[in-house]
Write a structure and sequence with these properties.
Order of helices and strands: HHHHHHHHHH
Number of strands: 0
Structural class: mainly alpha
Largest sheet: none
CATH architecture: Up-down Bundle
CATH class: Mainly Alpha
Radius of gyration: 18 Å
Number of domains: 1
Strand content: under 5%
Distance between the termini: 27 Å
Helix content: 55-70%
Length: 280
């Protein structure tokens, strides 16, 4: 696995926690703000089917992988299965509040359907790119507590818990890609991942934009002023989209690896809260 830089002492540990079962969060659970709430709700709706896609894409290449990578793939799958369960529960709260998420879910279905009948390496490349997205979003979410400030306690905990596990396993899909393409020339590997990332980025941004506006429309919030508020939230304050742009761009650098930036210290900020949920 040329260029792999996953720390030798990294451990990937599923934390089996259940969130928000006792009560339902408010409709606008993040600081009473419909824009902020729609931002995270629209993202969460994509997770169950998206993470199932990630699992299948990586698992396809587990056989024949080096023992350490095979073990990391297994731990990755366990984490993603639990993430799926918890976002299914979270999304149930979203629909219980009266939101119709069927259009958002259909968009995810349609995008995943595009990978059917394509070589498995294509799905792995897309997973590798989307895992970079989730890793940089997770980093920012934990690094700046203002993103979840004022949120419902259980809902905010769900996102922070999810974030530290995304940081923890951020190199697995990439290392799997390096292993699967180990016989490729370096330029071909870089060129293919670049094309896939540009395509994935466009679809990710367009999909989330449409999803956010769909949910806000169901709150009776439409028009250019609402769109301006969404852009202000994403690129102004707290500015999640703006703050991850630099980290996103590093993906295209020669010699990139997710663990070129070792941000495990962020895991320590949150991990103690979920220590009892660690799975052997």
């Amino acid at each position: 696995m040329a260029n792999a830089k996953t720390p030798a002492d990294l451990t990937i540990t599923p934390r089996d926690r259940r969130f928000g079962r006792a009560r339902r969060p408010d409709r606008w659970w993040l600081n009473g703000d419909p824009i902020a709430t729609a931002f995270y709700n629209a993202l969460s709706v994509t997770f169950p089917k998206g993470e199932a896609f990630f699992i299948d894409s990586v698992r396809h290449f587990r056989e024949g992988a080096p023992p350490r990578l095979a073990a990391e793939i297994q731990a990755f799958i366990k984490q993603e299965v639990i993430h799926t369960r918890e976002h299914v529960a979270f999304n149930r709260h979203v629909t219980d509040q009266g939101y119709d998420t069927s259009r958002l879910e259909k968009r995810v279905d349609d995008e995943i359907a595009l990978t059917k009948d394509k070589p498995p390496i294509g799905s792995l490349a897309a997973t590798m790119c989307l895992e970079h997205f989730t890793a940089i979003l997770a980093h920012e979410l934990v690094a700046d507590p203002r993103h979840l400030a004022g949120g419902d306690g259980e809902a905010a905990d769900l996102w922070r818990w999810h974030a530290i596990e995304e940081i923890e396993h951020k190199g697995v899909a990439y290392d799997t890609w390096l292993h699967a393409t180990r016989d490729w020339p370096r330029f071909r590997r870089w060129w293919i991942k670049t094309l896939v990332m540009l395509t994935v980025t466009r679809k990710f941004l367009v999909g989330r934009w449409i999803g956010i506006l769909d949910l806000l429309e169901q709150d009776g919030l439409t028009g250019w002023r609402v769109k301006a508020r969404v852009l202000g939230y994403a690129f102004g304050r707290p500015g999640m989209a703006r703050k991850v742009m630099g980290a996103w761009a590093t993906f295209f650098l020669p010699g990139f690896h997710p663990w070129n930036h070792d941000d495990r210290a962020l895991i320590g900020r949150v991990d103690s809260e979920f220590a009892m949920a660690r799975v052997a």
